[in-house]
Amino acid sequence: MLTKKRSLSGDRCFSPEPIQRQIAHQFFDSISALPLVCPHGHVDPALLANPAARFGSPTELFIIPDHYIFRMLYSRGIPLQALGIPTSDGSLIETDHRKIWQLFAEHFYLFRGTPSGLWLKDELYNVFGVDEPLNSRNAGDIYDYLEEQLTLPEFSPRALFKRFNIEVLCTTDAASDTLEHHQSLHQEGFTHIRPTFRPDAVVNLDTPGWRENLAKLESTVDWEISTYATFVQALEERRAFFKKMGATAIDQSAATPYTTHLSDQEAEAIFARALVGKLNPGDAQHFTGHMFVEMARMSVEDGLVMQMHCGITRNHNPAVFEQFGSDKGADIPLQIEWTENLRPLLEVYGNNRNFHLILFGLDESTYSRELAPLAGHYPAILLGPPWWFHDSVNGMERYFNQVMETAGLYNTAGFNDDTRAFVSIPARHTVWRRIACNWLAGLVTRGLVEEEEGYEMARALAYDLARVAYKLD
Amino acid sequence: MLTKKRSLSGDRCFSPEPIQRQIAHQFFDSISALPLVCPHGHVDPALLANPAARFGSPTELFIIPDHYIFRMLYSRGIPLQALGIPTSDGSLIETDHRKIWQLFAEHFYLFRGTPSGLWLKDELYNVFGVDEPLNSRNAGDIYDYLEEQLTLPEFSPRALFKRFNIEVLCTTDAASDTLEHHQSLHQEGFTHIRPTFRPDAVVNLDTPGWRENLAKLESTVDWEISTYATFVQALEERRAFFKKMGATAIDQSAATPYTTHLSDQEAEAIFARALVGKLNPGDAQHFTGHMFVEMARMSVEDGLVMQMHCGITRNHNPAVFEQFGSDKGADIPLQIEWTENLRPLLEVYGNNRNFHLILFGLDESTYSRELAPLAGHYPAILLGPPWWFHDSVNGMERYFNQVMETAGLYNTAGFNDDTRAFVSIPARHTVWRRIACNWLAGLVTRGLVEEEEGYEMARALAYDLARVAYKLD
Amino acid sequence: MLTKKRSLSGDRCFSPEPIQRQIAHQFFDSISALPLVCPHGHVDPALLANPAARFGSPTELFIIPDHYIFRMLYSRGIPLQALGIPTSDGSLIETDHRKIWQLFAEHFYLFRGTPSGLWLKDELYNVFGVDEPLNSRNAGDIYDYLEEQLTLPEFSPRALFKRFNIEVLCTTDAASDTLEHHQSLHQEGFTHIRPTFRPDAVVNLDTPGWRENLAKLESTVDWEISTYATFVQALEERRAFFKKMGATAIDQSAATPYTTHLSDQEAEAIFARALVGKLNPGDAQHFTGHMFVEMARMSVEDGLVMQMHCGITRNHNPAVFEQFGSDKGADIPLQIEWTENLRPLLEVYGNNRNFHLILFGLDESTYSRELAPLAGHYPAILLGPPWWFHDSVNGMERYFNQVMETAGLYNTAGFNDDTRAFVSIPARHTVWRRIACNWLAGLVTRGLVEEEEGYEMARALAYDLARVAYKLD
């Protein structure tokens, strides 16, 4: 009944129930050729700005930069050094990329049933044409094959960008970023690669290296930021520059979505304490909460869409942080609260129809309890797609199940891949599109929406909602 | 495979899996003729007390009073004024109901996949015979048709009450209510329309207008309520009157299910501070928590079933509250805690077998963690059906999935529609009954309950459990 | 379509979808003969140490010792006395076991759709050959039949242990336990019955009877425990003895997974206050939090696997506690937090690959938010199976759905039955195995894992993971 063929199933992600599966196919067929809209992610613009850029070895492409991958291997006892992850102190790591790949292949079974496993299979098959499951025996051959492919012009980032049919790709960039890569891309006519303003490094006063981050911002704006007022002025100037360079959105992140209004005096006082390195307890949280409101004010003024990503403890594992730095798979979500925390911001800006506030969280218990009711009432609020750990088959199904009845489809923001792994972009969108079509097919087979409506909703989920939410039209 | 016919599917809500669907049909057929038991809701008794009452225009029936509907339209940027929602200050609103209906129809796609959309389709089709999906093109014709129907005697509230096969309908009434409509209904023999005692407006000391609410209560009991002792006496007298008028239940609501025992002196002191408008921080919460225990005491004494509805922040959006008042779709749920909060109440009354305490919450993370284990132990506790946002296809399925294994079916309280939208009552019960039958069919097809048991459980969910829980036998 | 045959369905727990069901059968057939691995539970070793031990009457076997059963009956108003549950004060209870059984049978419908109901049907059918659903009419006959069977040698605990194909059974034993039954079992060669070190009674300073528990520990180690230092020494000595008697694991439990480091002076001071019965507020919690870290240290040193069971309020109902004692179905789960609470422990021991820390909780909202991300990063952490209330069809499906994509299958610890109801062991493992196979069949039919992988994953879930997690190889 099941064939032994090991290539990627054309039915993947769809329900086994024949009628639902057939309708899911119909919906998917109707939208699978639509271009990819990528309004939030972490691709390095340098990859695309330089026509000669290449991805490097298979290990450099698939393992070393991807904390989704190496955290799983680490959790089963494989040292990060053995995977070639660079150390902060320059201590020795494995440099034989073929050997790292072999180790990865031997442990590829760890990714069974995970989204990373699904994306990797899709990438190997659909991007590189590897129609064999990776294992310890064929690891070397597949490495050699991939290594060769990666040197070819058709596997350059630019060639893949075209092949992937990406209509727009937004990167995420520090407030101090000069956007030189975006400038050169724009000069070449790549205006569909857009920056996103991310001020966390200077707004969150307890960020490691805050003083240096501020110095970079000073250097970029070319004036001294010695007061809260000049700090705000610098942010406003940078936002204007980002907007000029094509940005339609900003992104702000904190452990909690706490928002508050500080008086100018209070904000100045905290900022002054930060400058001398003498923050009081609570200062950083109050300041971030205040800056959420300030960023909302600026968004109302300049029209940039505002994203909030909340609910993660960064660098939970001090040993890993000290040896390897940030973004090493050691970020762990927290319980969070939106209803009371967002109130100060919403009471000022929540009723503004032109203000788009897109919310992302990792605490799924808030989907049906807080986020969907908030989105189903406030004109400003849209819900972002399932984020990070929840960007998965089950994560998406929980999201559709828990969000849509109360928020309504049209208060959501479509999909974004949120990835720094450029080559995984089509695989991630495909999972979203398939799961969305399967969900809609379920609604149709259960008599809850009409088939014609399903086609429109499928298109919205795959394409339209993201464009509208991020003002990309 | 799917027809283009746009009428309501007879399979709606059922699984597409053929065997499960067939069994779901069998169960549903066996219970669909049972009368509707409506033990908790917000229908205005005046509608039924006056034989000449009519629903007004289609817009007055479907849109203006229904915050489920207009909150969704508001969330997508349609001003409440444009929907004819009355303003507190009497400022201008749209008064052309046909135009409002047109606007609604143009945005009817917003309700795709929502419970409101499902109910509306059911009401239009099954109550009014509109067998065409509402859209911008046919909006005017459908409006004219509905408008005409609504003037006919067979679409009077009383005629529909009979047609809907409602066995008992409980309204929700303020402690100060004279129940004049219930009195006249009873004199006519409509004893199956029963009041429910809801003392929130005088018990929650921080309710806007508390002093005026208390004055109304004073006026109703016709004595001065100048102390906590006389306040309690007034509540007891009113409960006795409600019971005489057919009430079998009370309903009490607060943001949190916090319960506590205050001494008489403490209660008197807080009440005295409330009377002079000088509450201390925490006073209102302690007093409400204490009154939960007091109401439980009275229920143990007078036998009235006690309902608790907890977990919502009322009037989250001050701009909407100031301009339009309460119940305008701006109530947002909160995380809550039952295990520790209910303890003071339960240690006194939780083991009483004749005391029925029916719990309702909006924090679904408490279903499997707190509510089901509490109901599966304490003789007094029953769990109410999925409430408000969760009165939906997925909300019910989450409830069955997360509650039943631990609480057991017979510690639940069946369904209640909780609606002020009288015409939506059958549609709401139908969704519950269909989802219940589909859930039971799933248990049968998975070999977890026998088919014969399924029939009994279907009847219990549709009819028996509500009657037993609310002492309606 | 459905037969009227009332025996246990061979398809039970499987999806009705034909292809998924068929693959689930294939997987289940491939693993159903594997021996049972029972690494955590509460079976009394005396049952097995004495060859002459018998289970007593059907009521003594199925009802009196099983709080899963009598809590449900109690919740519907049946007094615990009427079920023969012994009272602390020796006040009168029902002693006619046949009459209790009759009462139980009359209320057997309360267990519809519950895991207890499913286990009971399985036990009656598969262990005792009762192929008729229990009801009020056949209750007496079934009682008589069971009573007779239970006197037969083939229904002795030892005979059933063999028949059940149990490869290893770990009991749970107090720190002060002399393990005399384990000693005699070992002398007979029953080395596959292993103790587990559970120090809660002496570690949690607010345990009722703590001083007496400590006295028992003193008596066992045969020296005075007058200081924190000697207390730790006693625990270390006992762990060594347990290990010698075959233990591979310890188990520690608290309401919250709060962990902290106390200095020796702080720990000594709290311990001294406990000895004189004058604990300060917070002392017990800090001490337990510190002892979690201490137990982790010892586990790193002696290699014993560390289990943490967190998130339950014990003895929530004081009336039941006073009259009947602990473990009477009145334990209610609480919301808990892992991410911040475990940090002090993890920053010292979380990166140790040889340290196995198996986590169990009852707050399912932490599955996808905290537990899976923690397990998917820290080498030490493994996730235990769904615990207690969640050891059920839906509980397991929620676990698979919410844990596996992020944690990965190989960061989980397989199944354990956690039961004191010895006869229910095969039924519990069967539900796990069936649900696991059905979940895997779903992954295969949805194209997410290959069929070959499914066989390996099924075996891992049924057998391998538990052996590896508990170091039973």
TrEMBL record, chains A, B, C:
Signal peptide feature range: none
Enzyme class: isomerase
Alphabetic keyword roster: Isomerase
Catalytic activity: aldehydo-D-galacturonate = keto-D-tagaturonate; D-glucuronate = D-fructuronate
EC code(s) of this entry: 5.3.1.12
MF annotations from Gene Ontology: glucuronate isomerase activity
Highest taxon listed in the record's lineage: Bacteria
Example of a GO biological process term: D-glucuronate catabolic process
Record pathway: Carbohydrate metabolism; pentose and glucuronate interconversion
Short name of any one Pfam family annotated for the protein: UxaC
Family designation: Belongs to the metallo-dependent hydrolases superfamily. Uronate isomerase family.
Protein name stated in the entry: Uronate isomerase
Underlying gene: uxaC
